[in-house]
Amino acid sequence: MTTPVLDAHDTQVLVVAAIGIAIIVVLIVWLKLHAFLALTVGALFVGAGSGIPLGKVTASYETGVGGVLGYVGVLIALGAMVGKLLADSGGADKVVDTLLRGKPATLPWKMALIAAIIGIPMFFEIGLVLLIPVVMLAVHRSQGPAMRLGIPALAGLSVLHGFIPPHPGPLAAIAILHANVGITLALGLLVAVPAVAIAGPLYGIVAAKLVPIGAAGAGLAVTQGGDKAAKADHDVEPTHSPSFGAIMATLLFPLVLMIAKAGADIGLDKSSPAKPVLDFVGDPVFALLAAVLLAMVTFGTAVGFTPAVLGKKIGASLMPVVGVMLIVGAGGGFKQSLVDGGTGAAIAKIALAAGLSTLLLGWIVAVLIRLATGSATVATVTAAGIVAPLAAGLAPAQLSLVVLSVGAGSLFFSHVNDAGFWLVKEYFGMTVGQTIKTWSIMETVISVTGLALTYGLSLML
Question: Which residues contact 2 (CB under 8 A, 6 or more apart)?
Fold first, then answer.
């Protein structure tokens, strides 16, 4: 296999990418420019500086924005509707009351467990918008640091996103490397459990000290799950709160649909008549839409809200997330400029030239592409493709461990070019610096822990 050599364009795009990221940080942190504008400026600079034809620079940015908002934006909106109805119906209070039973020290572990369960079939963004009302209300009620509960929830979601099928990254890597789904899932769970524990409840203790914001400082505590949200909409209160069983059935309903689709992808032949039906109902957009319609009953008419009140609450749920969606979209535009400019390809050449073991090489390539492009899925797919020729002769278990090492690398140090970074920042009302100290470091802990565990398993198997 020929070792790739960096050319002048590769060097150029790497330098431009570094400058572009620096520009975004300076504009936001020092000049206090809105993140949407800063990301747009950074994306256009990177596009022009990387050699994309000037007439196509804005098209590249628009493609990235549209790609994110066309999917994630819809999910954010639908999730916000469910979250609003959950909070205003008293359902979030019911969940928190249940969580707060027992010793307070167990609450972060319960939050991580719930997030991990939700994160099995869900994309990170969907799980986050569904969990936010519960996390924020738990912070309000426990009167503890927001990050003490926020970090475990984020860790539970993120670990599953990086390691466990049916998430798109792991599934793509399994397909590219021709790994076994069952073996990857089993080994992935072995890696996921300690990774969630270390990066979640344990690192949450550190994060809460680094960023000691409480209920009052957490941004969307009053828009998605706080007491003020519950008293909006003309102070209409529910006549009674939903039962815990109804709450869990509503929240788990989209998960069941998506798990059914995942099972069909693995176990059903493409010619099966049930396959297209399950593909349709298990798509996250349909599943969350169905959850909204169900929530309008279980968290709406069943607790005493009239159709008119429900309409107002649904409308009110969208206002707080408009800014979040624009920022997340701009993050997607910046990522697309990096990808189209060739930054990912340049980084891949560097890593492949290092001549490391397949497992370690996969992790490093994924780390570098993640740092450059901000996309965990792009990092996973690209890294898996690069190491595929080197992994061709590995045993099934070792192939699955390469999939997991690539997944671990794809989570490394999320920062300003990652749409997830801005989603977390805006939802928790943190500054860029605070988001780096909490979310970015947490992602790095997951990545390094995942590498250590996969490497250890590779020596044992």
Answer: none
Cβ(425)–Cβ(435) under 8 Å? yes
Most distant CA atoms of the chain, gap in Å: 71
- Which has the minimum average pLDDT: 45-49, 204-208, 332-336, 455-459? 332-336
When computed from its CA atoms, the radius of gyration of the chain, rounded to whole angstroms, is 22
Backbone φ and ψ of 304, nearest 5°? 105, 5
Task: Give Cα 15 distance to the centre of its chain.
Answer: 28
DSSP string, 18-44: HHHHHHHHIIIIIS---HHHHHHHHHH
DSSP label at residue 237: -
The per-residue DSSP string of 115-178 comes to HHHHHTTS-HHHHHHHHHHHHHHHHHHHT--HHHHHHHHHHHHHHHHHHSTTSHHHHHHHHHHT
* Residue 304 region by backbone torsions, left for phi larger than 0, else alpha for psi between -120 and 50, else beta: left
Structure-token pair, residue 313: 């609450």
Q: Is the peptide bond before 166 cis (omega within 30 degrees of 0)?
A: yes
How many whole angstroms from its chain centre is CA 449?
18
**Using CA atoms, how far apart are residues 358 and 352, in angstroms rounded to an integer?**
10
Distance of CA 416 to the CA centre of its chain: 14
Q: What is the pLDDT of residue 219?
A: 52
Q: Which runs of consecutive H residues, i.e. helices, occur in 238-375? A: 244-267, 274-281, 284-298, 307-318, 322-341, 343-353, 358-373
Average of per-residue pLDDT across 307-320: 88
The structure's pTM equals 0.70
pLDDT category of residue 225 using cuts at 50, 70 and 90: very low
Write down the residue that tokens 């330098």 correspond to. Answer: 15
> What are the pLDDT digits (tens) for 261-301?
877 876 788 788 888 998 899 887 898 899 999 999 999 99
Angle at alpha carbon of residue 323, lines to 322 and 324, rounded to 5°: 90
Q: Which two tokens stand for residue 100?
A: 């707060």
Report the percent of the chain where pLDDT is more than 90: 34
Q: How many CA atoms lie within 13 A of 40 on its CB side?
A: 12
User: What is d(CA 163, CA 174) in angstroms, rounded to the nearest whole number?
Assistant: 11
Dist CA 452 CA 446 (whole Å): 10
**Residue whose C-alpha is closest to residue 400's, from 444, 339, 358, 350:** 358
pLDDT at 448: 98
Q: 175 CB contacts (<8 Å, ≥6 apart)?
A: none
H/E segment holding residue 301: none
